[in-house]
Write a structure and sequence with these properties.
Blueprint lengths: L2 H22 L1 H13 L3 H33 L1 H20 L4 H15 L1 H11 L6 H26 L6 H20 L19 H8 L6 H14 L1 H14 L3 H30 L1 H20 L7 H10 L2 H11 L7 H29 L13 H20 L4
Helix pairs in contact: 1-6, 1-7, 1-8, 2-3, 2-7, 2-12, 3-4, 3-5, 3-6, 3-11, 3-16, 4-5, 4-6, 4-8, 6-7, 6-16, 7-8, 7-12, 7-15, 9-16, 10-16, 10-17, 11-16, 12-13, 12-14, 13-14, 13-15, 13-17, 16-17
Subcellular location: Membrane
Membrane topology: Multi-pass membrane protein
Organism: Galbibacter pacificus
Length: about 400
């Protein structure tokens, strides 16, 4: 790998980690922050938390194809740098929030900036070939997982000094990443590979219509969509679930999500490469889906705290399916359409984020309102996640022979 490619991968990994940290930093402190702002209990706060994530996802859903298409026209570098600045502004906005409305406005801004993940993925596709594509996407997913460490740790530790403090730290980190990228990040899309920006393609409808051009992988994209909804059961519900069932504080929530992130880095940077070389992307994806199902079931029915940690380990091992899906789908698309493809996929994943947090958090609220009722079961969102993952598994098994 050339030195410029190494520099590119390093920057893209940092961008991805920071984007994830920006979303994850809010989770340990969000329950308390919402309760402070609107004077409510944790069960009701969960519903507000779901709608805050909805606000983030709505903007990502709309702007992911826009940024992806802009990067196909103007290059990846300028789009990523602007997104980083936007994210830093969002963090400062949330740091001084005095009303719940401020949180919603901040999440809108973060959703626009967070759409840069599609451009980061396009950068990886630009510099990858058949030999290293899966490995490189494993690295970017490992970076995504590292953000799960950075965000919750910052949120959990600094949150002890005030619910607004973690966002100031995130703003500083994001601006530092912008400075690093400005001087160190080279462009990955050559001018000869760029194409004209078209409004009809730079929107969610155009993005989904574009995906229909690839009938060979459209069913895999559907499977990826269902498992993406399932994946939101961890970030969207985890804090509320552990508070309700085991009376955890922000510190324990932050540490547990950091543990999740450490495991994810190991899985994405090492296990993905091992499984892909030994079994191929398709078998690795099926294995990952099965593992995810087992982990989610253990979390849903956990009666003691210690069981959560082996359950998380099994669940995180299952995350190899995400890299498998990405590698299979990306290998079927031309270089000058990678930005549009990744934007389309990000928009689809944004749609999953629009659907999942309200669905899962409202299910949590409904099944935790009254502990004396026969309907009380805090693990309900994880059972919903199991059902969705089973659907993805059935699709993948049916598709397996043609991959």
């Amino acid at each position: 790998m050339s030195r410029s490619h190494k520099s590119t991968i390093l920057f893209v990994l940092i961008v991805t980690a920071m984007d994830t940290a920006g979303l994850g930093i809010i989770y340990p402190v969000l329950p308390q922050l919402i309760q402070d702002l609107i004077n409510t209990d944790v069960s009701s706060a969960a519903t507000y938390g779901g709608w805050l994530t909805f606000a983030y996802a709505l903007m990502q859903f709309v702007f992911a194809p826009v940024l992806g298409n802009l990067s196909d026209r103007h290059g990846r570098r300028i789009v990523l740098l602007i997104s980083l600045l936007g994210f830093a502004i969002d963090c400062l906005f949330l740091a001084f929030a005095q009303h719940i409305i401020w949180l919603f406005i901040g999440r809108f801004i973060a959703g626009i900036a967070g759409a840069s993940y599609s451009v980061a993925s396009a950068c990886i596709a630009d510099i990858s070939n058949d030999e290293n594509r899966t490995e490189n996407f494993g690295y970017i997913n490992a970076a995504y997982s590292s953000g799960l460490i950075i965000g919750p740790v910052i949120g959990g530790l600094l949150g002890q000094f005030g619910t607004h403090i973690p966002f100031i730290a995130a703003a500083i980190l994001s601006f530092g990443n912008f400075i690093f990228g400005y001087f160190m990040f080279p462009e990955t899309l050559e001018k000869k590979d760029r194409r004209k920006f078209e409004v009809k393609r730079a929107n969610p409808y155009g993005a989904f219509k574009h995906l229909s051009k690839f009938p060979a992988v459209i069913t895999l994209i559907v499977a990826m969509f269902f498992v993406a909804i399932s994946g939101h059961s961890m970030p969207s519900v985890w804090a509320y679930f552990t508070i309700e069932k085991f009376d955890w504080d922000t510190r324990l929530i932050g540490y547990s999500l950091a543990f999740l992130g450490v495991l994810s880095i190991v899985v994405q940077s090492w296990l993905v490469r091992l499984l892909a070389k030994k079994f191929g992307d398709a078998k690795m994806t099926i294995f990952g889906l099965l593992s995810s199902i087992c982990g989610l079931l253990l979390i849903a029915f956990s009666a003691v705290e210690w069981l959560l940690f082996p359950a998380m380990m099994i669940y995180v091992i299952g995350s190899v399916q995400r890299t498998g899906f990405q590698s299979i789908i990306t290998s079927n698309v031309a270089k000058n359409e990678q930005g549009e493809l990744q934007g389309s996929l990000s928009s689809l994943l944004g749609l999953s984020t629009i659907i999942a947090p309200p669905l899962l958090t409202m299910a949590f609220t409904f099944f935790t309102k009254d502990e004396s009722s026969g309907l009380y079961f805090p693990g309900t969102p994880y059972l919903i996640a199991v059902g969705l993952t089973v659907i993805s598994l059935l699709i993948m098994i049916k598709k397996y022979r043609s991959i």
